[in-house]
Design goal:
This protein has 540 residues and is α/β, with parallel strands linked by helices. It has 16 helices and 20 strands. The protein folds into 2 domains: 225 residues, no CATH class; 249 residues, EAL domain (TIM Barrel, Alpha-Beta Barrel), CATH 3.20.20.450. It binds ligand C2E and calcium ion (2 copies). One calcium ion binds next to loops.
Length: 540
């Protein structure tokens, strides 16, 4: 089990395996997404087509039924009630006036009288399929696939008018295997008028509770049409078109596009992982070759403008002179764990370079940035303890900066920070205000000082929305008895404003950029000399 996990982890670490897995995952995700999208789009267009067809259909059928009704009404209105010349003239007139009337007839006992003698449709002695108060309907008067036979017949009294299969198929463009059904007995019975018979009811929950005209099942589209007559309804059923058969939709282009995106993602992962690997390898080499240097950005007392300490900041200058920003390589080192080596290196360098200045200026301190993993382990206390013994520097002169991100796992963080404080170090919260630290949470943390993030200092006097944040943080810090350092001060106006708000210390390009150890030592010594000079002048 252990072996399998280790093998899996080492394989997952291989760039090309990671890239392939990414490509597969992206391809699967995008293809599934594309399939759903295509399916949805096709279903929608299928439903729209069916709705449009249904409406067109109903319109035309109403037209046919309307003509049949008008024709039979016209016959009922004329006075003749026997098969005489005026009757035959009236029957022929109806056949002539109404395009959809195939045959008009008068039925009286065994004496059929028709506009199409010899057709014998009108003498159908079957009881009507629908018997309304005024009209009677016979469906499927002929089941023969002959377009020149009556298919629907309407009766009023002794009069009959019919429409032919041909007329029906003319107005109804049924798809293959589609059917037009007439629903009788409140939907209980369905008589196919065109197309093959269909199983009825078409679904288990018929009629559907939703009032929608269209019902979609796995293999059929069922379109209900209520007619102007309360006696019957019409239903159009067509089989669904296989999705795969509709490959002509431009949406199918999504699939090759997904594949391309998947390949591109895999390739990007490959490049990124390789780049990170290279950067990480380079960083390790840089540490060994001494390309990493430590600079010190002075921190000043805002009221006396005296340098009280500095923040140690790493720089990576490559042999060709290019500088790589810590914002780029520190997060990478945090991920790979190389940050521990960097933290140890910073501590070792600063004590080696500034040990003497620190011994000569017992109030001076240097603060060191800690990464989340430095805060989670008790290791730093031991490392710094040994170095402080070696260089005979007081723990008070080394402070540690932790960001709110480094405090996520609160229990070990609190324990380790407390033991650093117990040793005599100061603990600062860096970039305060950018994370999630609440007042209540802050109260429980063993810290001495808050560093207000540069973004809030920049906003002072500019951005109305966030310019209120710095004063708020300052009040909060004071309420908790914490000191405040403002970082990124670039103008005198900011320094004055912050000083008046009660901020104790400041750091930024207004005072000094990050200096090398020699420049920083000179700044400190110059400051001391000035002070001693001033004291001598005062005494004189
Ligand atoms: P940070 O700890 O917030 O450091 C302050 C950053 O603001 C530094 O950038 C500094 O040069 C810059 N800065 C200071 N004053 C001004 C100013 O007036 N204007 C402007 N525009 N910038 C100012 P830097 O040195 O590039 O460091 C960037 C970040 O890299 C640091 O942010 C810190 O999070 C990280 N970092 C640097 N050195 C170390 C280190 O030794 N260990 C760890 N864990 N992180 C480090
Ligand atoms: Ca910092
Ligand atoms: Ca900061």
């Amino acid at each position: 089990m252990l072996f399998a996990t280790a093998a899996l982890r080492s394989n997952l670490g291989r760039p090309w395996i990671l890239a392939t897995l990414t490509a597969i995952a992206v391809a699967l995700l995008l293809s599934a997404g594309s399939y759903m999208l295509v399916k949805h789009a096709l279903e929608q267009s299928e439903a729209e087509q069916m709705n449009a067809r249904g409406e067109r259909f109903l319109d035309r059928l109403e037209q046919i039924f309307g003509q049949l009704r008008e024709g039979v009404d016209q016959l009922a209105a004329q006075p003749s009630r026997q098969c005489d010349a005026p009757m035959l003239a009236a029957l022929n007139q109806v056949g002539f006036d109404y395009r959809f009337v195939f045959e008009a007839a008068f039925v009286n006992g065994n004496q059929p009288c028709s506009s199409r003698p010899g057709r014998a449709t009108a003498d159908l002695d079957r009881p009507p399929d629908i018997e309304g108060p005024t009209y009677k309907y016979w469906l499927n008067t002929s089941t023969e696939p002959n377009d020149n036979l009556a298919a629907l017949m309407l009766g009023r009294g002794n009069f009959r008018v019919s429409t032919s299969r041909g007329h029906l198929t003319d107005v109804v463009d049924l798809s293959d295997n589609g059917s037009l059904l007439v629903l009788l007995d409140k939907g209980q019975r369905a008589v196919p008028v065109l197309g093959p018979p269909q199983v009825w009811p078409p679904t288990r929950n018929w009629p559907p509770s939703s009032g929608d005209a269209l019902t979609i099942t796995a293999d059929r589209l069922i379109y209900r049409m209520s007619t102007k007559s309360p006696d019957y309804q019409l239903v159009l059923i067509t089989p669904r078109i296989n999705l795969m058969a509709r490959l002509n939709s431009p949406l199918w282009l999504l699939f090759p596009a997904s594949l391309l995106i998947a390949i591109f993602s895999g390739w990007s992962v490959l490049v990124l992982v390789r780049q990170r690997r290279t950067l990480n390898g380079e960083l390790q080499g840089a540490l060994r070759r001494g390309e990493i240097r430590v600079l010190y950005q002075p921190i000043f007392d805002l009221s006396s403008r005296r340098c009280v300490g500095a923040e140690a900041l790493v720089r990576w200058r490559r042999p060709d002179g290019t500088l790589t920003s810590p914002d780029l390589f520190i997060p990478l080192a945090e991920n790979t764990g190389l940050i521990r080596e960097i933290t140890d290196f910073v501590l070792q360098q600063l004590l080696e370079q500034l040990g003497q200045v620190l011994r000569a200026n017992p109030h001076l301190y240097i603060s060191v940035n800690l990464a989340a993993c430095d805060v989670m382990e008790p290791r730093i206390g031991t490392v710094v303890g040994q170095l402080l013994d070696l260089y005979r520097v007081s723990p008070r002169q080394i402070a540690f900066e932790v960001t709110e991100r480094g405090l996520i796992d609160v229990v070990p963080a609190r324990e380790n920070l407390q033991s650093l404080r117990d040793l005599g170090h100061q603990v600062l919260i860096d970039d305060f205000g950018t994370g999630y630290c609440s007042l209540a949470y802050l109260q429980t943390l063993p810290v001495d000082c808050l560093k207000i993030d540069k973004a809030f200092i920049d906003a002072l006097g500019h951005d109305a929305a966030s310019s209120g944040v710095a004063p708020h943080i300052i009040r909060m810090a004071h309420a908790l008895d914490l000191k405040v350092i403002a970082e990124g001060i670039e103008s005198e106006a900011q320094a004055i404003l912050l000083g008046s708000e009660g901020v104790n210390y400041g750091q930024g390009w207004l005072f000094a950029q990050a200096l090398n150890s020699r420049q920083f030592s000179e700044l400190v010594t110059r400051g001391r000399r000035k002070k001693i000079g001033r004291r001598v002048e005062d005494e004189a």
